[in-house]
């Protein structure tokens, strides 16, 4: 039985798929003219990946490419077994592995594909553009004012926005696309790096709150390693690391994160408190420097007799009593701000005091 392997993908802007034969195995794929399969495409390395047949199994190995080799949208670090129908990305170029059994005839091409017949109708849109955004760092750093409860400036929260002509600015849309490509952490890291870079250029000297994607909390060791690297590059920035409430589930791990942040001279904030379960035990056992009340607790806050007011007041008294500064998110009206002051919340963030704005375009106002 003769088995033929090939990659099927789209060339340029053409809507017609094209097949790229793996005529001999092992087969090196890349831009170099001496590769077994030459793909003269931008973002593919000179020698990008190698395909081998080992014990009748097709194996792909990345050859130290610049932009990575992905199998089913997972970046591979080791030789990886392939099956018919698997999606491969070489750089930002997308292919599907196809298999034919029998003589390499036109009839065989038409009728003996194994595993899957045609490319699916719903590939994630703009895959190439997304990987271009990551590769070329096409994002911008934004900041939003955090004020004292009297309205005077205190700090900024760092936020990222896209800067790709096709994908647009919306971080929500970019993270939705990143989720389909299992690249949420990569996008989050890029936003963070750009914000730190821009903040340093702007010489911002006030506290800077920065976010992480929930997926990054699955590997705090890697996250802390990255923060150690960034702290060495930007020792001048006053940083506050925001952790989503839902990520605070392992007290021992969180305590180690707290100790590591202290060594790096980075503050700690618990974000979106009250969005799910109010994890009071975690707050007591591993107290942060700041606690941010979720927008759901704050928005449309009514008078002092309302249940939400009473709940927020009780929580604020408890948390403030632990020496933790409290912050209300999503404040949009003077009435809400006045009620937050009445409760005793320390800090306020929301459209009332400022919308997100580019860091670099506002350099003159960055340090108050």
From TrEMBL:
Stored PROSITE patterns: EAL (PS50883), FHA_DOMAIN (PS50006)
Gene3D superfamilies the UniProt entry points to: 2.60.200.20, EAL domain
InterPro entries in the record: Cyclic-di-GMP_PDE-like, EAL_dom, EAL_sf, FHA_dom, SMAD_FHA_dom_sf
Start and end residues of each EAL domain: 120-368
Superkingdom of origin: Bacteria
Domain (FHA): residue spans on this chain: 27-76
Pfam name, any one: EAL
Protein name (record): EAL domain-containing protein
Organism of provenance: Gilvimarinus gilvus
Species lineage: Bacteria, Pseudomonadati, Pseudomonadota, Gammaproteobacteria, Cellvibrionales
